[in-house]
C-alpha cells in the first residue's frame, strides 16, 4: 500500500529456564505508528480508497496514529545446536499477547496467539546437506488490531519470511506460513554454500469473507552463502525469491532466515 509513517517498536520478553531446553516467561509489546500519511502522488480520493483507511474507519481507529501495547506470556522449547545456523534439533514456541486499549496510548483492545515450529534434518553423515522446516501462525481475536499490526507477509520478528514478496504484501486477521529449505555446502571447508527454498502463506480477510486456505501466496527461490565467522557459523546470505503475479525480491542478510 502506498503509505508513509514513522514506526517505533519495543518487544521485550524475559525467559526463565524451567528445565533443559524449556523456558517460560513474560514480556511487553509496544508498536507505535505515527505521522501516517499518503504516499507520493496519491490523491485524497485514492487515499480514502486504500485498505488502511477503509479498515480503520470500519473499526473506529484513528487515521494519523495507531498504537498497540500490552503484556505477553511465552513458552519456548529449543534443542537446536545453534540459533544462528542450526544443523540439527528443533524449536517450538507459543505465546499469547493481550493488547489493551488506552494502555500506553493503545488505540484498541485485541489479542494475539502466536505458535511456531522449526526443525532441521541432516541428509548425510557429515551434515553437509540438510533440510530445514519452518511453520508458524499468527491469530488475532477479541478485537480489531490497528491496520499495520495485522499479521502480514514478511512481518515476523526479523522480517525473514515470505521471500519472493515485499513486506506486508498480504495482510489479514489470521496468517499461516510454511517453508522448506534445502541447504548444502559448496566447498569442503564450508566457506561457501547454497540454498533453495519453497514457501507459502495463507491469510484471512474477514471483510471479504476469505478464510485460511481459500487462497495462498506461494514463493520460491535460491541463494548463496559465505561463511564470515567460523566459530559462530555466521553466514552472509544472498537470496533471490519469486512469488505470484510477477512478485520478486533480492535479499541480503547476515544469519540464516530461520
Describe the protein's architecture and organization:
The protein is mainly β. The protein has one domain: Porin (Beta Barrel). The protein has helices spanning 44-48, 51-58, and strands at 3-19, 22-38, 66-78, 89-99, 110-122, 129-141, 174-185, 192-203, 217-229, 234-243, 248-254. It has an eleven-stranded antiparallel beta sheet with strand order 1-2-3-4-5-6-7-8-9-10-11, with no helix packed on it. It is globular and about 60 Å long.
Oligomeric organization of the protein chains: single chain
Show unreliable segments.
none
Strand content of the residues, in percent?
over 45%
Q: Provide the residue-averaged pLDDT.
A: 95
Assigned CATH superfamily: membrane protein fhac: a member of the omp85/tpsb transporter family
Could you say what the CATH architecture is? Beta Barrel
Backbone shape: globular
> What name does the CATH topology carry?
Porin
Rg from Cα:
20 Å
The end-to-end distance, rounded to whole angstroms, is: 27 Å
The secondary structure category is mainly beta
What's the order of the H and E elements? EEHHEEEEEEEEE
Number of strands: 11
Number of domains: 1
Q: List the total number of helices.
A: 2
CATH class: Mainly Beta
Largest sheet: 11 strands, antiparallel
**Spatial order of strands in the largest sheet:** 1-2-3-4-5-6-7-8-9-10-11
- The percent range for helix content is under 10%
Reconstruct the topology from this structure:
Elements: E1 3-19, E2 22-38, H1 44-48, H2 51-58, E3 66-78, E4 89-99, E5 110-122, E6 129-141, E7 174-185, E8 192-203, E9 217-229, E10 234-243, E11 248-254
Antiparallel strand pairs: 1-2, 2-3, 3-4, 4-5, 5-6, 6-7, 7-8, 8-9, 9-10, 10-11
Amino acid at each position: 500500500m502506498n503509505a508513509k509513517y514513522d514506526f517505533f517498536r519495543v518487544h521485550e520478553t524475559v525467559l526463565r529456564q524451567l528445565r533443559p531446553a524449556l523456558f517460560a516467561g513474560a514480556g511487553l509489546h509496544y508498536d507505535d505508528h505515527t505521522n501516517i500519511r499518503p504516499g507520493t502522488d496519491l490523491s485524497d480520493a485514492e487515499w480514502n480508497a486504500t485498505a488502511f483507511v477503509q479498515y480503520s474507519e470500519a473499526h473506529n481507529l484513528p487515521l494519523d496514529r495507531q498504537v498497540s501495547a500490552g503484556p505477553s506470556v511465552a513458552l519456548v522449547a529449543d534443542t537446536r545446536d545453534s540459533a544462528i545456523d542450526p544443523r540439527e534439533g528443533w524449536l517450538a514456541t507459543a505465546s499469547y499477547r493481550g493488547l489493551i486499549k488506552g494502555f500506553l496510548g493503545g488505540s484498541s483492545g485485541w489479542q494475539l496467539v502466536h505458535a511456531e515450529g522449526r526443525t532441521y534434518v541432516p541428509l548425510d553423515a557429515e551434515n553437509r546437506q540438510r533440510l530445514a522446516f519452518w511453520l508458524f501462525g499468527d491469530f488475532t481475536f477479541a478485537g480489531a488490531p490497528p491496520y499495520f499490526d495485522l499479521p502480514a507477509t514478511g512481518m515476523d520478528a526479523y522480517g525473514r519470511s515470505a521471500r519472493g514478496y515485499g513486506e506486508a504484501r498480504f495482510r489479514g486477521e489470521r496468517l499461516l506460513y510454511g517453508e522448506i529449505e534445502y541447504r548444502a555446502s559448496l566447498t569442503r571447508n564450508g566457506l561457501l554454500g547454497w540454498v533453495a527454498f519453497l514457501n507459502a502463506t495463507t491469510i484471512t480477510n474477514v471483510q471479504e469473507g476469505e478464510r485460511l486456505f481459500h487462497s495462498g501466496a506461494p514463493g520460491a527461490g535460491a541463494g548463496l552463502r559465505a561463511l564470515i565467522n567460523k566459530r559462530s557459523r555466521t553466514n552472509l546470505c544472498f537470496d533471490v525469491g519469486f512469488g505470484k503475479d510477477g512478485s520478486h525480491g533480492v535479499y541480503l542478510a547476515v544469519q540464516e532466515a530461520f
